Task: inverse folding
């Protein structure tokens, strides 16, 4: 199953994919696996990412630079859980279709707010 981006981002996703070069050692198949994270407040691209399961590498593309982090999938979730309260606050409904990570952060923030009684 593939992630469903909001319609307003589909054309932009295709344009960005055409402009991106894969990191050294990867081919165009890498580009087809890219995930996009759009800011629901500004509609600007924050970053792109690819997780390579075999080598447990999380590749992040931000401002034209590929950064690589070696981690297991559970470590990615743990990182979010530990820092979700410090991240920019996204409206969950606005975050739908803006990216897997943005949407999950917004959902966690919504749940935390409900637990803390700051939102009903």
Result:
């Amino acid at each position: 199953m593939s992630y469903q981006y909001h319609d307003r981002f589909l054309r932009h996703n295709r344009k960005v994919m055409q402009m991106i070069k894969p990191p050294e050692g990867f081919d165009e198949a890498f580009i087809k696996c890219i995930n996009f994270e759009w800011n629901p407040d500004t509609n600007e691209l924050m970053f792109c990412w690819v997780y390579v399961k075999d080598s447990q590498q999380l590749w992040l593309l931000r401002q034209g630079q590929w950064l690589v982090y070696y981690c297991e999938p559970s470590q990615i979730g743990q990182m979010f859980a530990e820092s979700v309260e410090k991240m920019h606050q996204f409206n969950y409904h606005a975050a739908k279709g803006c990216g897997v990570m943005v949407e999950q952060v917004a959902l966690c923030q919504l749940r935390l707010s409900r637990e803390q009684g700051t939102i009903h």
In short: The chain has five helices and four strands. The CA atoms of residues 56 and 71 lie 5 Å apart. The radius of gyration is 15 Å.
